[in-house]
């Protein structure tokens, strides 16, 4: 049990530094230039994928293709398995000089997607704990929508407010006004930054909001405002420390993820696993296998939304870019941690969800992650010519070049 992957340890210790560093080091110019597309993919796209996977599991379970799972747990699983973690894909994108728009769409989607997936999973799990027997389907939908909006916007507002408070404190804390100049004591200044980095997560979790969403927006705001009030020593120290800690946390996450394969008794149903990954072949072979629902949900997310966005974008999302975005939907530690966090009964259901999730995670990381570089070279999507700066391009932060 020493090597067991514990959800509480993951969500309280390992995930916050990774998410905060993602927001703090974000290239905000490209991010906000593509913010409409990123929000559409990460919010509506994730919801589409969650409904397809969750609905497929529920209805196929009712058809006795595998163990039946109730409605709310089905959509909870669909939500958690929709979280993408394209760390390997982003590294390959940077190494191959891929189109910066494609790079930012995948990276930006993954940042918000994790938070949205966690909020959707918590929403579905919250509905399972309530008595919904006397509530109609429409009322259930409205209740879930209200819970999601409260979690999403409430957490984002809390993170933004915390970041702005840190900026004000750092701005008014040097000089002779309060007889203290934090810029002359980098250790104290750095300690204050670390406290404000974790503060929104603890506050959000304490009032039943999403700590991940709060700490993400706090990181974005602090890098844009608070960062420029710091001394040069603390600026460099903050950036390098965050990168180091985030790298160590990611390494620990994948180490625990590998060890967790042997840490609990697995319940394996081949039909359940296959239907989860392969849903696209459902249209071709009619009730064939389920490892496809995840890929099918990702396809229904990426392709229709990309065609819709092209009506409003100057820099179009090409079919090759759409295919790479669909292929790069790797699953990581967040889906597995969420699967262990679900309070399903009996224990066999929980083991079934956990086993299926880790198989899907390994399948996408090893097969899709390993095939990304050959696929990019095959479709020839590398950006051979540097793209000219458009008048609409914006640069919002000096931290992007540091």
TrEMBL record:
Bilayer-spanning residue ranges: 35-61, 73-96, 151-174, 186-201, 245-266, 272-296, 317-338, 358-379
Chief site of localization: Golgi
Keyword line: Antiport, Golgi apparatus, Ion transport, Membrane, Sodium, Sodium transport, Transmembrane, Transmembrane helix, Transport
One GO CC term on file: Golgi membrane
Membrane topology annotation: Multi-pass membrane protein
A GO MF label: potassium:proton antiporter activity
Gene Ontology terms describing biological process: regulation of intracellular pH
Subcellular location: Golgi apparatus membrane
Domain (Cation/H+ exchanger transmembrane): residue spans on this chain: 4-376
InterPro entries: Cation/H_exchanger_CPA1, Cation/H_exchanger_TM, NaH_exchanger
Family: Belongs to the monovalent cation:proton antiporter 1 (CPA1) transporter (TC 2.A.36) family.
PANTHER family named in the record: SODIUM/HYDROGEN EXCHANGER, SODIUM_HYDROGEN EXCHANGER 8
Protein name (record): Sodium/hydrogen exchanger
Protein species of origin: Neodrepanis coruscans (wattled asity)
Gene name of this polypeptide: Sl9a8
């Amino acid at each position: 049990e020493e090597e067991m992957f514990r959800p509480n340890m993951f969500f309280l210790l390992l995930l916050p530094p990774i998410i905060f560093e993602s927001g703090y080091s974000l290239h905000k110019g490209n991010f906000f230039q593509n913010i409409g597309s990123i929000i559409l993919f990460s919010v509506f796209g994730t919801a589409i994928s969650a409904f397809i996977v969750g609905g497929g599991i529920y209805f196929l379970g009712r058809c006795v293709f595998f163990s039946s799972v109730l409605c709310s747990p089905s959509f909870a699983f669909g939500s958690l398995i929709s979280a993408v973690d394209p760390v390997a894909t982003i590294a390959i994108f940077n190494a191959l000089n891929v189109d910066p728009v494609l790079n930012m769409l995948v990276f930006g989607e993954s940042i918000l997607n994790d938070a949205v997936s966690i909020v959707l999973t918590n929403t579905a799990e919250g509905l399972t704990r309530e008595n919904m027997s006397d509530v109609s389907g429409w009322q259930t939908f409205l209740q879930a929508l209200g819970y999601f909006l409260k979690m999403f916007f409430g957490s984002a507002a809390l993170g933004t407010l915390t970041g702005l408070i840190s900026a004000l404190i750092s701005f008014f804390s040097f000089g002779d006004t309060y007889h203290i100049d934090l810029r002359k004591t980098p250790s104290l200044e750095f300690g204050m930054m670390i406290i404000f980095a974790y503060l929104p997560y603890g506050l959000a979790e304490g009032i039943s909001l999403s700590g991940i969403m709060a700490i993400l927006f706090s990181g974005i705001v602090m890098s844009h405002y608070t960062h420029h009030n710091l001394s040069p020593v603390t600026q460099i120290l903050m950036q390098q420390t965050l990168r180091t800690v985030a790298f160590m946390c990611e390494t620990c996450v994948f180490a625990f993820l590998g060890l967790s394969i042997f840490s609990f008794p697995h319940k394996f149903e081949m039909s359940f696993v296959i239907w989860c990954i392969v849903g696209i072949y459902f249209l071709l072979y009619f009730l064939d296998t389920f490892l496809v629902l995840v890929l099918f949900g990702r396809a229904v997310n990426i392709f229709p939304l990309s065609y819709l966005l092209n009506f409003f974008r100057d820099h179009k999302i090409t079919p090759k870019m759409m295919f790479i975005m669909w292929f790069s939907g790797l699953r990581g530690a967040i889906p597995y941690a969420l699967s262990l966090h679900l309070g399903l009964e009996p224990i066999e259901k929980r083991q079934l969800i956990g086993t299926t999730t880790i198989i899907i995670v390994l399948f996408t990381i090893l097969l899709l992650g390993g095939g990304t570089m050959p696929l990019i070279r095959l479709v020839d999507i590398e950006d051979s010519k540097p793209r000219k700066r458009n008048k609409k391009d914006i640069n919002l932060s000096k931290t992007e070049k540091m």
